[in-house]
Amino acid sequence: MAFDAGMLACVVSELKKSAVGGRVERIHQPELDEIIIQLRTVQGGRRLLINAGSRSPRIGYTALAKENPATPPNFCMLLRKHLGSARLKDIAQQGFERVVWLGFECRDELGFEGTKYLIAEVMGKYSNLILADASLRIINALRPVDFTTSSRRQVLPGMKYELPPPQDKADPMVTGREEFFAAVAAAPAGQKAERFIIDTFIGISAALAREIV
């Protein structure tokens, strides 16, 4: 099953019930594009996996214990510095996009309480992990994006975080009955139903569109 926006919404709903309130015990980066946050929750210890790779981007619990590199990668060390012993206070999907914000209550070097955000963009080859402060100023990213990589949106330390550019499609979570049938009436003649769903609504994978049909 593709990890589309619908799947992400279901996962976020489950994580809200079980992960929010959990405290960070350890952070590992077993793969170049994957981190695992060990949380201590009311249900006990849970491993929260966030994969920002192009082949299988996703977020969710894992029971798999992976071998970690002898020397932690720089991004892993950054997360340990800012999120070590932090408490997960909120997790939210942004609209019906494949973007989720994890808000952590943490303390800085001087002991003052503050908020940091770990932003997971689960978007295929454009997936990324971004650490930002309370004002959404980017601290650093797993995969920085400069002007040579994208002219539309940069993801660099010091910049204000912005959501990925919106797609010219409707949000299925807020589309009403009349709007849906108006879109059906305006669809090209002979267009397949699954193609209509994919082209009209954001966050729906081809596999899910086929199942809906």
What features would you highlight for this structure?
single chain; 5-stranded antiparallel sheet; alpha+beta; 4-stranded antiparallel sheet; 9 strands; 213 residues
3D architecture notes:
There is one protein chain. With 213 residues, the chain is α+β, with helices and mostly antiparallel strands. The protein contains 5 helices and 9 strands, in the order αββββαβββββααα. It has a 5-stranded antiparallel β-sheet. Strands 1-2-3-4 form a 4-stranded antiparallel β-sheet, covered by helices on one side.
Look at the structure and give the mean pLDDT.
93
Radius of gyration: 19 Å
Roughly how many Å apart are the termini? Answer: 16 Å
Q: Please give the number of β-strands.
A: 9
Helical stretch count? Answer: 5
Q: For the largest beta sheet, what order do the strands appear in spatially?
A: 5-6-7-8-9
Shape: globular
Q: Helical residue percent?
A: 10-25%
Write down the secondary-structure element order. HEEEEHEEEEEHHH
Main β-sheet description: 5 strands, antiparallel
The low-confidence runs, each spanning 5 or more residues with pLDDT under 50, are none
Quickly give the structural class.
alpha+beta
Relative strand content: 25-35%
